[in-house]
Amino acid sequence: MSPSSSPPPSDELDRDVDVDELTGAELAEVWALLDVEERRRALPLLPRREAEDLFLARPTPEQAELILDLPADERRAWLRLLPPDDAADLVQHAPAETRSALLDLLEPATRREVRGLLAYADDEAGGLMNPYYARLRPEMTITEAMGYLRRYAREHREGPYYLYVLDAEQRLVGTVSFRELFAAEPGARIADVMRQELVTVSDDTDQEALSRLFETHRFLALPVVDEQGRMKGVVTIDDIVEVVQEEATEDIQKMGGTEALDAPYLATDFFTLTRKRAGWLSVLFVGEMLTATAMGWFEDEIARAVILALFIPLIISSGGNSGSQATTLVIRAMALGEVRLRDWWRVMRRELASGLVLGGILSAIAVLRFVVWQLAFDAYGEHWGPIAITVAGSLVGVVTFGTLAGSMLPFVLRRLGLDPASASAPFVATLVDVTGVLIYFSLASVLLRGTLL
Amino acid sequence: MSPSSSPPPSDELDRDVDVDELTGAELAEVWALLDVEERRRALPLLPRREAEDLFLARPTPEQAELILDLPADERRAWLRLLPPDDAADLVQHAPAETRSALLDLLEPATRREVRGLLAYADDEAGGLMNPYYARLRPEMTITEAMGYLRRYAREHREGPYYLYVLDAEQRLVGTVSFRELFAAEPGARIADVMRQELVTVSDDTDQEALSRLFETHRFLALPVVDEQGRMKGVVTIDDIVEVVQEEATEDIQKMGGTEALDAPYLATDFFTLTRKRAGWLSVLFVGEMLTATAMGWFEDEIARAVILALFIPLIISSGGNSGSQATTLVIRAMALGEVRLRDWWRVMRRELASGLVLGGILSAIAVLRFVVWQLAFDAYGEHWGPIAITVAGSLVGVVTFGTLAGSMLPFVLRRLGLDPASASAPFVATLVDVTGVLIYFSLASVLLRGTLL
What we know:
CATH superfamily of the largest domain in chain A: SLC41 divalent cation transporters, integral membrane domain
Number of helices of chain A: 21
Distance between the termini of chain A: 71 Å
Helix content of chain A: 55-70%
Oligomer: homodimer
Largest sheet of chain A: 3 strands, mixed
Number of domains of chain A: 3
CATH architecture of the largest domain in chain A: Orthogonal Bundle
CATH class of the largest domain in chain A: Mainly Alpha
Order of helices and strands of chain A: HHHHHHHHHEHEEHHHEEHHHHHHHH
């Protein structure tokens, strides 16, 4: 054990750090590297306030891991720290049989809030929202609002981001930021300073749409309202940073041909990790078997011209690579809202043109290689010309097919209501491999008939 | 043209919306779908305050696009709206020859700030930070602090996120949140309520480390200090949401085998798009040529047993797919800080085991297919047994090599100071293709000697 008094730069960090000697900020820095045992041991060693801040800042699965094995009274103390939205998340992460016991640990008022929140999916605005927020009335003066905020701040652990102005029916009629409150004359009415152009979401707005709204408007919080315009709660930007990372991670893992892990890589147990990869890998393998079937149809051609076989990996993988590029670009653009379903035709025209140009570039490299190797080593025999043309032509065809398949598959999946990110690089590559074999040998049959075949 | 009075759900959105009829919120919703001409036309149609809010919320490249062609006096009005950090970003995005003209449009005080910020790279804390923030003195009372904030709010367009307490040498000695300020007794001293455990960054902290700090601590803002602890500015969470998306987009594009586009897909012109894809595609193509070379060494074996050629795509692509999975998982875990350089050995052991298990599963599927096809169609002739064993053995070898190469390559790249995300799925697939050919034919030479070969 080599104790370390201040956190060293990330990558040289010594994992055998002595958790007993760290402050809250230092512990937060090395937290990701500790295992759950070390974390449970480290937390009570901190001053209470630092320990609470650290606990509150952790993502939900970790909070659950940290407190679920504690004795009931300690568990209660930690659980009651959480605002209702986070408490609801934690309850959702707990094993089903412990959930009602957890709910019983909450104060009755919070318990009701949490039960209400549990009805929402955790990737919707309703599941992310906090039902506590600072509410004002239009007829309040600025001084009255300040007085209310003073009480609010004493009762709540999280500061309000914005102030929401509700009418008597709890309908949202305006918002005021702290800056605007401070800038206003003390005697002015809230109704005079509030903003009335409202951007609101409903409780079933999904988290991807939500994060796009936060990016577009640069708000710190967005109000959730029901169909009658009644305020239900707020979604705050700190949850959105987590959402954005989670969504990107999920998409990246799917694009890589894995099911989303839903947990850090090193924290995922070996069985789960392997299972989440084996599914797609097996499906792709069975699909890829079609290449063997397709090549079987051309066994005679291969027997007569073994040289044709040499270029198979080169040709099909070029299609796979261009397809990976196209699918990745389109999936990401869709996730960011830059490309929508109705853009498919624009994307298709672009990708068709891209495919032809990229295929042309690779063909040129291939032809150059044929010419140089042929002149230098007589590598490909007397029929090298037609072979070169076959390879070059196949490259244009396969690369163009790859970019088209890669770019259109995400549209097809989204149109079918599936996740575009499932059009993973390996999936597209497999699709293009099978087609690539067919394109290559079909072209060879035509171009080499009478010479090599 | 079909005018639309309220923004319809994203995917059915009519692109031919009439921009003249939209409110600020509606315009923000459809903004991504408008081209630059429509945007320039739409902005002045809005009430001034809504137009300003919309402009302020846009990412820098768009702000530049919107104002750079305007007459100088209009350009000045827009430019002066921006806080210094955003103004510096905009100047950085402008063509080099217009930069000093832009700087001249700023007020002298702001111009000095902006010049200072221009010295920082825009992916470091220094480049993201805003030099304006609300500063307090430890000896102020709460009432005095409130009075100061009132003046601050009137002078600045962005509200402060936290209040920073500086000593006489401008060293940061504490922070106070709004909640804490409101909760405190009016006569209390700032020194009594401020938090003294500080999390700070320096101006060269890179944006990936920065976004991890925001996630770990759930702060709304982080102070930037120099080596003497003197406060330089603040980085705020709204910039971080953008950074997180940008970093994920960059990584995703690199993982897909493209250079990072640095602009929305549909906004990237065809030439740039093609150039950013052609580079890697050509490099991979030249690498993939080695498969032809490698297979050339085994031309005699293929001629004697054409059946061997049929399984080449199946075997090498399985290695490529498992390699894509591994590299994607590891690159993302590194980007999230879940896996560090020194974890390479843990990752390697896991991936070795994963590779063997996954390879085993695919082998089992392959053997099943051989047995069924052989019994049903006598598909592979008298030597089907040794062929099946060769294919199955190669699969274990190639898949294991794929996961190892895919998982270790990001470590190697990071160790060399390069971006781990360059270990793209296509790159790993190409590497594994070449090795896969060698593994397969070497195993075949040994196992089939005396029978087929």
